[in-house]
Amino acid sequence: LRLSTDPTLMALFLSDFAKMLLVFCIIGLFPTAFAARVADKIYQEIQGDMACFKRFNGTHEVGCTSAFGGNVGVLYIPEDIEDIKWADEKGPHSPYIFGLTPSLFTSEVLMILKDSKNVNGIVLFNPDNQTYPEQDSPVSTCPSHEYGIYNESSSSEYKDYCTADAKESWNPVGTSLLYKSFNFPIFLIQDEESVNAITKCYNTYNRDSLGNYLDWPLCSLQLQSNMYGATNSEVCIRRTNSFAIVGINYCGPIHDYNIHGSLNEMNGELEDSSVIVVAARADAASMFDNISPGADSAVTGVVTLLAVAKALSKYKDDFKDANKNVLFILFEGETWDYLGSASMTYDMSESSFPFKFNPNDLSQVSNFNFSHIDYFIELSQLGIQDANDESQIYLYTDPISNTNTNIQEINDKIRKAMEDAGGMFNVNVKSVTDDKTTLPYPLPPASLQTFLKYFNISGAVLSDHSFQYKNKFYQSYLDNYKNVKFISSINNTNSSDDLHKHLYRIASTVSQSVYTMATQKSDKIDVNAVDENLISDLLLCFLRNVNCTLFREHVGQLLEQYIASYKYEYFQPRPAKMYSSVQGGEDILTNITLYLLGDFLGEEVLENEHECWSNSTSAVQMFFLPKMGENGTCIKSTPRLHSANSPAFRIPGYNFSSGLYPTWTESVWDTTKVRLFLKPSPVEEVGLVVGGCLFVILTVVLAYWADARAATLFVSSPAPTQC
Question: Where are the domains of the chain?
């Protein structure tokens, strides 16, 4: 049967064909899965894993977000602030996505763009060969001041120190950009190929070799980083709890785990003033996801503490004979208003650190509280140095505590022990005092302040700065290995590197002073007690390459399984991320550090994996390292994790605006990405849409017309003659 012989069948065929054509036209106008190949021809994927994201506290939201489908804008790369003002006020192709170099990524520029209606986003170019600005610190001039002991609600004479109106500030270059809210996305792009692709596209389509601006089509960007959370922590958590039954999550509390381990086992009743605390902060931050190097703000303190722990582990018996112990603590989340120390001190005040006392558990680790602390040594920023052959560190004590004669006497002993030990290892230890009164200067931002809010204890903070931070990139993406002048390749430390020698001298000084004060012996510790090569290896792992042998060796089996199921390959040649995220977000590094401290404080026992794990108790931790040694290594040690979870999220009915405890949360998001493409003129875009719609309408009309006149248009052929 031929269609041409039957007008009805022919009409049906054309009608069905018209319907199919209509369906295909509709499909062509709307994105679907099979259109991916077309999208690949239109868009070029750019590095998009370092987005500015939303965080919240009890009263505000800070950070960045995009529209649900992303923000689109014409790319504009200014050369100076006048170019920025021109594009903001007179730019003919708005809205724009601004491409900025670090030198233009300043508070002044971002405040101009924040208030503009012609800005849809910012990309910050920072390839490894980029020239650094002189300074970049996105936190405040007085970090976490409201949660310290010198805040405005304090009754002390120091309550006005480092306030918004005060002349003194610890971080004078602080811009507080981390605490601003932007209604457009901001991305950091470090990948050199991505930066080159963007600049090439811009110089080809948006600006000619003479500097003249070109017309359509123009190089453009799509930035997608839509955040689910909004308003503040209280509202966001309430929304999350309301929709928990359907699995919708808007935000979560910032959370990680403090690490603490004692030189000797702690069990039974502890005597008052029998434990020396050596502490450091283990976290850092920046405006962007996936980058928080914290070279000076965190890593130098962590590395020094680990080196001190390993050095003093060689003298356990001397400490035991002196009835003294040392508790090493690495606090997480201190960037967020002393989250880690606030959590630990709250548990101490509730007699539940490290655990609630259980009279039925005879092997339970000792319950630890403030009265057990002899004195507190905090290792703060230690990486910025002025000379190569001698190290300079500054010692701070609390002037309020020093009004107590007993406290001042112990603080003076700490100072004297540090100065004497420094003389042995070529370290100049200088106490920071007020030039006018010669009284001790207030403590810089430090975890010790959180402890002093609860209990009057002796203590000192060691740092590389006097009065003001030397670190001009505090809590910045630029606080990396270059900032502390760490000389190395991605795999090896250069023999001429001075940072590891500098930290070796400081670690030796701290080890010697703690040993002298605890044992009351004048003996000098072994000059090789602090392992200089270990410091070098730790710096390499933290600052340059987490895919290092030392880190890989200190991965337990459970952590190895967790990493295998992780959303991306953790062990890559990149710096460690020191950021404290939501629970389960960035805790791989925390666990590796736990195993490092366990190894350094512990002793090897000849047990297989099963025996090793089965012998753990409350007071004794067993660590099995499958990649260390031929058949793995079992370590008997003391370190354990302590949940750095703010009491604000544990106390029923807590008032989130009270300012008593940290209330920081982090928004949830689905994906972040950056795409480069050529954008036609608005007239052309409208023309294409209108043309497509007219084509569909015309197709429908023609199909209907052909269907109605099928009998006329398609005449039957005569029947074939019978033979």
Answer: 45-249+672-681, 255-545+641-645
